[in-house]
Amino acid sequence: MTNSNVTPKEAGTIYEAIGGQPVVDHIVHSLYKHVAKHEALIPIFPEDLTETIYKQRLFLTQFFGGPSLYLQEIGHPMLKRRHLPFEITWERRNAWLECMAKALDEANVAEPYRTAIFERLSLTGTHMINTED
User: Fold this and answer.
1) Which residues does the chain have with pLDDT short of 50?
2) What are the structural domain ranges in the chain?
3) Distance CA 68, CA 46 (A)
4) Fewest 10 Å CB contacts: which of 2, 23, 44, 80?
5) How many angstroms from the chain centroid is the CA of residue 4?
6) What CATH number has the domain spanning 8-128?
7) Distance CA 108, CA 27 (A)
C-alpha cells in the first residue's frame, strides 16, 4: 500500500508498510478494547481510556517510524519513567502483549511486520517491568 503523504524520511518504515495512520488507529482502538476487559490490566488503567488511546496513537505512530507525533506533542517518551506510578509485573506485561497480539490480528497486520512489531513491543514491555509478581 502506498501513501502519497509519506515523506522520503518515512519511506521503508513499518508505519508505511502496514498502511500508515489508518492501520495504527485500528491497532490502538482494538488494543484498548481488549485492555478494558482484561482482569490483570483493569487495575492500572483509567476507566475512561480516551487520553490513553490518544497518547498510544501518538506513540505507536512514532514507534513504527511514522511522524514524530509523540515527541512533538508530549516530549521524549521516557517510557520507564512515565510508567513508574503503575505496578508493571510480568503478568501485566504478558497480558498487555496478549491484547496487542489480538489487535495486530484484528488489524490484519501481515508478516514479517507483525512479528517485527511484536518483538519490539515485547522488549519494550520487559523494560517497563517495575514490580515483582
Assistant:
1) 1-11
2) 8-128
3) 25
4) 2
5) 24
6) 1.10.490.10
7) 9
pTM confidence score: 0.86
The per-residue pLDDT for range 70-91, each reduced to its tens digit, is 888 877 777 778 777 899 999 9
pLDDT single digits (tens) 93-109: 999 999 999 999 999 99
d(CA 126, CA 88): 9
Look up residue 60 and give its three cell numbers.
505507536
Coil vs helix vs strand at 125 = helix
* Distance between CA atoms of residues 70 and 110, nearest Å: 25
Residue ranges with strand state E in 14-99: none
Residues near 13 by beta carbon (within 8 Å), at least 6 away in sequence? 64, 65, 66
Contact residues for 120 (Cβ-Cβ < 8 A; gap 6+):
63
Q: Angle at CA 32, nearest 5°, toward 124 and 109? A: 70
